[in-house]
Specification:
With about 425 residues, this protein is α/β, with parallel strands linked by helices. It has helices at about 80-95, 100-115, 130-140, 160-175, 195-205, 220-230, 230-240, 255-265, 275-280, 285-290, 310-325, 335-340, 345-350, 380-390, 415-430, and strands at about 5-10, 20-30, 30-40, 45-50, 55-60, 60-65, 120-125, 140-150, 180, 185, 210-215, 245-250, 270, 295-300, 365-370, 395-400, 405, 410. Strand 12, helix 8 and strand 13 form a beta-alpha-beta unit. The chain starts with a strand and ends with a helix. The structure holds zinc ion.
Amino acid sequence: MSKKLIYNAHIITMNASLEIIPNGCILIENGKIKNICSGQLKDPDAELIDAQGMFVMPGFINTHTHIPMTMLRGYADDLPLHTWLTEHIFPAEARFVTPENVRIATRLALIEMIKSGTVCFNDMYFFEDVIAEEAKKAGIRGVLGESLIDFPTPSFHTVEEGLALSKALICKWQGDSLIHPSVCAHAPYTCCRKTLQQAKQLADQSNTILQIHIAETRKEVDDITAQTGMPPAEYLHSIGLLDRNVIAAHGVWLNPQETELFASTQTSIAHCPKSNLKLASGIADTYSYLQAGITVSIGTDGTASNNTLDMTEEMRFAALLPKVKHDDPEAVNARTALQMATINGAKALGLEQITGSLEKGKSADLIFIHADSSNMLPVYDEYSAIVYAMNSKNIRSSMVNGEWLMRNRELCHLDKNETLEAIKQLASTIKH
Ligand SMILES: [Zn+2]
């Protein structure tokens, strides 16, 4: 029986009442939080972990990304989405996305994510089984779905083959303690009605979430409206694709009726502020979405359009942008931004019983933040310090299911030097 006892911790629980426990303890047994309280706990069998000077809080949940795209970081920048995707990214993926290269790029992404405090990520890409293997080895939690799309991809040629791959992923990983398989339909502009409905059917039969991109650009809204007579979210609702098991990336261009549809169907949104800014897609009105009762979480998107997987940066953008959009500094405050980056992500992914906050019975998916540092002191308000002042280097250690991913900035399961050499080698073959 493995036990760990964290003591002297300033605990940011992110529970429903946003409780903060100064000078607290967390007892972890078999990967789960057995007790969490102020003061001292004793357990002679537990490994003792002194958290003096540290905030301990739930790790970040990145709810939309394509992690092997690290191989294309900086490959094609400063372009509008349609040109970027069709003239640069899709052709490069057709040439270079192989299981071997996905493995290398995944390792690079995992290093960056762990070093910036992510404990769980939601991925849609190709060769997701390879990504699952690497995530499992690294000890990080992953929700993974093979990206279904109507044209040939690096991992399958027909939608039937793609569905078979999705089923195989589900069969292999369902019930795993770290890997949560899902189904993914890329977008309403790359999947026909039949593909979208087949994907949803598989997700429902398998009791998994469905991931999809929705209303990312104005062009998408115009094109889908021209094709179907309805804007994207309304169209997807009309064919049965919106419900509480669906997580929609972006949602930049939802009209008020569609916002209401998202709220009434409990469809959630993965907000990707930096990617939306970089591709000039727009600024999602997350403040109105939250006001409407939608679960809004935060994703980095892939590193070809961001270009980082750093949730500390993404969260800061998510807190700052609504203030300008609404001309109101109170729109999305620091508390809300941190909820979006933690517990809202868990809710969106159907994992709120497992992760997203530090509470008795949940998995010990947590990070240690060195708050006694020049860029964070003085701390008058913990949420302000974390959202507006912290950077990824303040994150010293992390664990998932009570097992270390990183300890004192040292990665526990990934070979950084080997990975950096491998990605440089790969980039030299991709360079055009
Ligand atoms: Zn995306």
